[in-house]
Every structure is written in C-alpha cells, then in structure tokens.
Amino acid sequence: MSYLRAVLNNNTALEIKHLKNIIKYGNKLGHNTSKYEKELAKIRVKKAAKNTKTTKKVKIQKTKTIKKTTKTKPKTNNLNYTVKNIYTKNNMIIIDFYTNITKKYIDYSIDKTKYSNLYLFDIKGSFKDARPTKLQISGIDRIYIIQKEKNLLHIKVRDKSKLNPIYIVNKKQIIIKFLNIGSNVNSNTTKTTTNSNIINVNRYKRKVVVIDAGHGGKDVGAVGSNKKYEKKVVLAVSKYLYNILKKRGYNVHITRKGDTFIKVRNRTILANKKNADIFLSIHANSIAKSKAHKVKGVETFFLSPARSARAKRVAAKENSSDVRSMSKSTKNSFLTVLNQSKITASNKLAIDVQQNMLYTLQQRYKDTVDGGVREGPFWVLVGAQMPSILIEVGYISHPTEGKRLYKSSYQKLLAKGIANGVDSYFLKNP
Ligand SMILES: [Zn+2]
C-alpha cells in the first residue's frame, strides 16, 4: 500500500512507516527531507494524543502539553542561532536574527572559475525556509540559501562579473551589500550586436548540467558481440557531450571520467550537490541474440510511475543491484510522492533531446530508428531533484548500429544531437 493510500485510509502506522522510508532513503539520495520530517513529527504527536486512553478532558490536556513542548523546545535551545528572516532590499541581502550577534557569525569566501564567480557566505544559524530557497537581486545571476548543517547556512551568490560584496554585522542583523552590480551589462550588449554566438554563451552560461556516464568498473552494463561493453560506449559519448556543452557555455559536471564503479545513488547526489538544472544519464541498449538483427534505434526515458512492458524491460537492465535492494514499499513510497511538475519538465526535456538526437543522426545515417520518448521507473533518476532523463544511444547488439556506436565520429554525432536537444530545452524553458 502506498503512502498516499495510507493517508487516505487514515492508517497512521502505515503513514509513519512510509514517511520513515522516504526520509531514510531520501537522506541517502541527498534529498531535502525536512518536509517529511515535519509531517512525521506531526503524526507522532497526533498518535501520542490518541493513545492516551483516558477521559476526554485528560486527552485534550495531553495533546496541549505535547504540542507545547515540541514547539518551545527548539526555540529555547537555539534562539541564538535561529534566523528570523532573510530578504533582499536594493543591492543588499539582509539576515535578521532573534538575538544580538557578532562578526563570528559570518565567514566569506570567493571561488573564481573561467565562467563565473561564486561568492559564498557561511552564516552560523538555522533558517526554517532554507529548502534551498532562491533570492533575487536584479543584475545578479543567482542567489541561493541552503541549510548546510544544523547551524550552518550557506548563501551562494553566482555571477559572471565582480560584485565586490561587503558585509556589516549590526546588532541582530547581517547586511551583505554588493557594490558592483550589472557592471558588465553594457559591454555585453555591445558585443551581442556584433556576434550572435555571444548571446547564446551569456544566456546559457548559468545553467548547470550533470552528465552521468552509465555503469563503469565492475559494472560493465550491456554486453554486445565480441564482448563489447556498454560502459565503454557511454563513457565516450558522455565525454564528447561534456566538451561540447562546456564549449557552449554551460556549467558541466560528469559522474565519471574513467572506468570507475559508482553506486547509483551517488550519481544523483552529485547532481543535487551541484544544484544541477538538468541530469542526463547516458546508456546503450542490447537485446537477446535471436532479435539482435531486428532491434535498433535511439530512445529517451524519463522517470514516472508508469510501467509499460518495454519500459519495464529496459528499467530492469538499468536498475542496478544497490537499488534493487530497496524494499517494494520504499519504491512505492517514492513513486507516489514524485513531483508532477518535475515529471512534466523531464518529459519536455526527453522530447527535445530525442528529437534533436534523431535529427542529427539521420542527417548522415538515414536508417536510424526512432525508439521514441518513453516513461518508466528508472531508479538512477529517482534521486535527482531536477528534470532528469535516461538516454539510450542505440543497440550495441545490432550488427550495424553496434559497430557505429564504437566509432568516434558516430559518438561525436550523438553528443552533438544531445547537446542540441539541451539547447532547445533551455531556449523554451529558460
Ligand atoms: Zn545502461
């Protein structure tokens, strides 16, 4: 029985069991589970109140005292570190505390990369609304608030220009002020009129893409004829894709650059850590010898609770052993809480990637088959908190497609098609 059904049937014990599952595996996957933890605490308070088999009067008193203690306890203990509010005003981020604070409450560092600057503010404190949360100051690319640890808040500010931040600690308040916002706007607009490529670079520079090269190490993936391994093909395609997207101005990360084994959940943990905008898991397909000469083509999957026979077959292959060990009820718990907006975005991303990959391949190989966009329960995608897809770049079991998949020119073509799909997705969903 799923979590939702447990809620509908008012089955508290089951509800608690499912929530525990979601929190336990959510934490392993690097999710923010605070929503479910709160829900669990609420249900437990309710349950405790119900279990007191006494007169009505006593019952009411009990629930009241329980509520009181749970409410006041964290406040009295941590009021020094409790952040009241975080907001922006003009060119400033303002952090309000309940009590007076000192300069020791803030630490500042800057991380410069080729494409942008990351300004990181470590704040000693807990903020109930850090989930992570986005803040906005016009002229700054990105501002994120993340509760890193119990009493450690991260405020991450990312921008291509030098923002020259300063900060002031004043009584119960920290004020971070940016002295230099939007300084490169003018120089960009003059450039964009002369070279249209620069528009694209600036536009997409902010997007973070995590590429997951499927399998690796002892996990060889599918095996084609002459012991050709899936892990080798997908690594090559992933690396080409990495380079193309980087050249186009994306902030790109890859789960492996060599022949190494990585647990399924660690792949999406990377994506969550990097605050990725999209997650692309690259795989290649295979089928039994008797059908090998008949079945070929590219297909793209996105995560959903739907289980068609074909999706089931592919999912069974791609879902690795560390995921298979999850209990059935845990899997059901996850599928029922899948975020519908994430499913929709993943579906859109899958369509753009599939269409562009197919179009690019068919320019040179007219016989490329369209396997279409499909949905299914792919566990490598479950952990990702952003739109995520699994791309099957072809069948290594097919006599001709299998050979092509090992040619670098074909691998580059595949990578180019996928990259075009990513461009197309972000153009429509900025
Ligand atoms: Zn695979």
TrEMBL record:
Known catalytic reactions: Hydrolyzes the link between N-acetylmuramoyl residues and L-amino acid residues in certain cell-wall glycopeptides
Name of protein? N-acetylmuramoyl-L-alanine amidase
Chaperone found in the keyword field: no
Top EC class for this record: hydrolase
Ranges where the MurNAc-LAA domain occurs: 268-423
Q: Which GO terms describe its molecular function?
A: N-acetylmuramoyl-L-alanine amidase activity
Q: Which InterPro entries match?
A: MurNAc-LAA_cat, N-acetylmuramoyl_amidase_3
Q: Does the keyword Hydrolase apply?
A: yes
- A biological process from GO: peptidoglycan catabolic process
| GO terms for cellular component | outer membrane-bounded periplasmic space
Q: Name one Pfam family in it.
A: Amidase_3
